[in-house]
Amino acid sequence: MTDERELTDAEIEVLQRKDFYADPDTVTAELYPRATNLSAGMLYRRVIRPQAPAAPEYVTLPLSRYRDEAEVQLSVTVAQWNLLWEAAQLRRRFFAEDDLPPVIGQIADRGDVNVVFVPRTDSRYYEYSPLFHLLSHSTVQRYGLPPLRCGQWPYVAHTAPVDRFLPTDFEHRLSRAWAATVWRYLVSGSPLRAFSGSDPIRLLAHNLDYWVPPVTAAIQDILGGFPRVDEAVGQEPVPLEDGSVLEGAVAVSPRVGSELWQGQAEAAEVVRATVEHADADGRLRGILEAVREHRVQDDFSEHWSFAREDFERKLYSKRSKVAVRFVELTDTIPVQGPETEVLDGLVYGDFLALLDPRERQVVVLLHSGVTKLTEIAELLGYANHSPVSKRLARIREKADAYFRQT
To answer: How do the residues of the chain divide into helix, strand and coil, expressed in percent and rounded to 5?
Structure first.
């Protein structure tokens, strides 16, 4: 007999929430965000390391709260499987086929595939957890997301019903928060709000599925720098049951577990590394350049930006200046419009109608061979050439505006 009573569902939920949300004292720039890794050395003295590891894929499973023996076995197997991240596509070789739960056995039957299992949730929190746990506390607050405790890669175990503790639109909020975080690496000098919702780069920044593989690669780079649990254990061939050895792999001591990142500065470095992995083969750079070269007006919002100004300069040729010259026609007269007049060998269009009488006199005098400003000023009755210079400037401005419209 014991006096201890079972906790009520409400009391259990209070404890779960406390374990799920970050302690207010830990959301400083030095401590938040944070993510860690657990070492396979807790279970294995050696792991298989392939010489050419395949990129991991995420597979969701309906992992529940350990209500029966089968569910417990599934959760334990998932934890063991994921801890063997270093074995990549070779991790199935650590398990006897008959010992695998059916849902994992179906994956193992596909052969050497590098799969990371995560719980299936409506929020997709576990799939996007590496991205969420790179967000600064200010970004989390700005987009209405709760600050959560330390993240973990790969997934090992869960103790809380996350969908109950997260906003119903968690994925949408995370998408916006991640786009705001990564935007400066994609478009320099122009804020995200300057682009419309249909802009291709903006859509790419919000696409969480696109960013999961590169953030996973960035995490594995960090893990690759951790020391071995037992540096005295050297590399050895991997023996097979038939007496041969597994080609393209060695058995080594597993790496230690440790912090992946802690604090805003370290997280920012991982964000930068994530972008670099997204462009490891030049694909991201190619996408960005292609979009910039083929932008359309609908890509921009009503907000001003350097990107929009550059686009409009190209569209409206703002950089090209109209050089106004008054020239005589040669013997070969080009085709002119119906409003064009040819007076004494000079092509006049309806542009002359835009000039006042004095400005027309300047044009005529220039055509008649009077090219010095002082001579034109004297013929027009001015004391000096300053009024003529001003009128020429106005003529050029009018010509510039006129010929841009024709």
So the answer is: 50, 10, 40
